[in-house]
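Subject: Interface between my chains keeps coming out wrong

I've been trying for a while to get a sensible model of this assembly. When I model each chain on its own everything looks fine, but I need the whole thing in one frame so I can look at the contacts. Pasting all components below, labels as-is. Any help appreciated, I'm running out of ideas.
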Amino acid sequence: MRVYSAVYIAGLRRYSTYRAATLAGILTNSVFGCINAAVLLALFSVRPLINGYDAADAVTQVFVCQALVATVAILGPPLDLGERIRSGAVGTDLLRPVPLLGWWLAEDMGRATFSIVFRGVPTLLIGTVLFDLLLPGTAGHWAAVLASVALAAVIGFALRYLYELAGFWILDTRGIWAVVGLVGPVAAGVLLPLPLFPPGVADVLRALPWASMIQIPAEITLGKESLPGGSAAGGLALQAGWAAALLLLGARLTSAATRKVVVQGG
Amino acid sequence: MTSAHSDDAVIEAVGLGRDFVLSEGPLFRRRRRTVAAVRGIDLTVRAGEVVGYLGPNGAGKSSTMKMLTGILTPTSGSLRVLGMEPARERTRLASHIGVVFGQRTTLWWDLPLKDSLELTRHMYRVPAADHARRLAELTGLLELGPFLATPVRQLSLGQRMRGDLTAALLHGPRLLVLDEPTIGLDVVSKATIREFLLRLNAEEGTTILLTTHDLGDVERLCDRVVVIDHGSLAYDGDLAGLRAAVPVPRVLVVDLAEPSPPLEVAGARFVRAEGPRQWLELEDNPSAVIARVAAGNEIADLTLREPDIEGVVAALYRGAEPRPA
Amino acid sequence: MADLLARPCGGTVERLTRPARVYALLAWTWSRALAQYPASLALMTFGTALGAVAEIFAVFVVFRHAGALDGFSLAEGLLIASLANLMFAAADMLMGMVEGLGQHIRSGSLDVMLVRPVSPLVQIATDRFAVRRLGRVVPAAAVAGFALYHCDIDWTAGKVLMLPVLVVSGVAIAASVWTASGCLQFFVADAREAANSVTYGGHALTEYPLSIYGKGVVYAVTFAVPLAFVGWQPVLYLLDRPDPTGLPDLLRFAPPFVAVAACTAAALLWRLGLRHYRSTGS
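Reply #2:
Try treating it as a single job with all components included. I did that and got this:
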């Protein structure tokens, strides 16, 4: 456990040195938040209610999304793991007494923690200053949001870990990023809040892991009934299910990859 | 082609200086400080010379190199390279000089070496026939054949350096500027490159200016050594003169069969010991000292260490007055 | 192509067109190198094309729900989005790599470019030239064609002639914005991400009728960062629509002039930045 907390803190420290980039990130997230919010406000001024979402819901989701998008890294950056697999340096990582998955999870959670505190929270604050956001009113509700964000970060990590792990079997993982870099934002509710899609499509997308990174946390923040089971508990259960399933898959594939490296010598 | 200034001078620097303004301290309380990287250097290099430009890290070597190639604008003094003023005529000068940075490649990382060289040809506007002839020549001399079709990122350091040299020479430059050309190379690659440079200088009369930390480069290649430290010229002359100006003794490393008290041998001075290994500074010629050590002790191994350039330069700066040869 | 450049220094015309020819040559070489992995290239191109499809799809969804936004119908909305996408995609392909300037400065590869007798701007812009970005242009052009067909446009000879001029001007303006924001990295090392909010943010902004953002934004992208001339003004011109924000209609004829001004400004900023770099060494 000591090792993991050390790796976690190292991840946190590493990102805390990128101060200018963090400031620029807040700027970029806020600009995109404002643009998307303006578009949706224009839309909802014509159609005040779409599939249970109103203007305030939509604008809130836009800023929750901008606050989370860097934390869950849905648009990247990829884990450095990919580079280590390509260069073969991963061989030494596999020799460490710490499991590969755990090591990278701890590192990435350090990054995610820094990102949510110093990039996510300021972005959300800017959103509340500029627009009327519907934020939780009770401590219990905030606790649910916090749990949801943590699970979203784990899912974000697990997906990127799997993308990079594919590098053991295919030569170029950039192709994977080219595809998931597009599917991800659409399915997660980054491009548009999922309620704007036809209800059947939205329900399918809501069940996929990408939605658990943005759409589900947004709906938990808003306390929506469209969540699985109609409540925050259902949403958290879905997220926890995905987090567990993806981590398990990651662990399984790591062993397979390790065998491959050991047998074939990389 | 260019208006030659004083007969055959390739590089003419008079009082060349370069200051940097540094901002320090926290935001809002920043202080500006001016630091001189190069101070008033006078340097003339004539056509056909091979000059080693030496000095410790941070002495102003790379700033000088950047000014010579036109990347950096001087703050004072005058500078002419091939009759041109590098800062103002950078693009024109670029077609007449070749530059190799040992630590970063001028080749395109993802392209096969051949494509990189082809691109270079277009950039330097070398006619196709000249290019083919020269490429064939360089391919033979530097043995590029086996890896011409390999992407640059897959080349070994030695292969890459040979590729970089080729790229820098395809347009037949009159001046070749090399920044650490043998850094990180194995012994064989170093030898290949040194022989090649000597031949280039002898056959085509190409003037060569190189920075290096490798005494072997200097001994093998340079008729003339220029030492810079703290931005000023500390020495300008031949290598023998530099050695004479600052005598730094050679060191004999003796591995004895077992740890022993410090050796006392005539013609050598004990420096330090580490287990059975002892370091002796030579004051006499090595064979005499080795004979004396061998007479009284059982020796497992022996090495003779030449003083490196760092040592010579450091000694130059510590003590002896610079004495131009 | 191979022998275009292999001539001794020529006259003024030769000097002026040389950057364009070197650009074409470098871009061609990169494309050829990347085409050695055809499967990868095809996949990336397809992925890039889907990116444009996704963005235009979002505009489609919004207009389907709204019916019309600020008096612009679905087809008109798609026209704005696809034209903006087309121009930004082309500009990104031509000059997008300038955003890597900071990386070139840090790694020292800018110095390498400076010791070659070719404009470093051309060298940076063509570095790893990505043909795959053409993938964006194709679906955007297809949707633009579709929207032009479905919009109620009173086609005159003037409009037919103006259309290519407007497209070229739009590309030039977007490319200038891209170049200028990249140049900021000469002065502020970490400016890349902040510049992204102008380039990618500007792209996102121009996908919808600008009037929905309010007058302040429209004025800013008309007079400060001239993105209003990339998709918005051309569409107002094609549709014969008065400017909903009350700006003079004459502005819709400005794109070619704005393009020249923007290119000049970007070129000056580049020169200024390069001079700064060469005089500070950082």
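Reply #3:
Confirming on my end. DSSP finds twelve helices and two strands in chain C.
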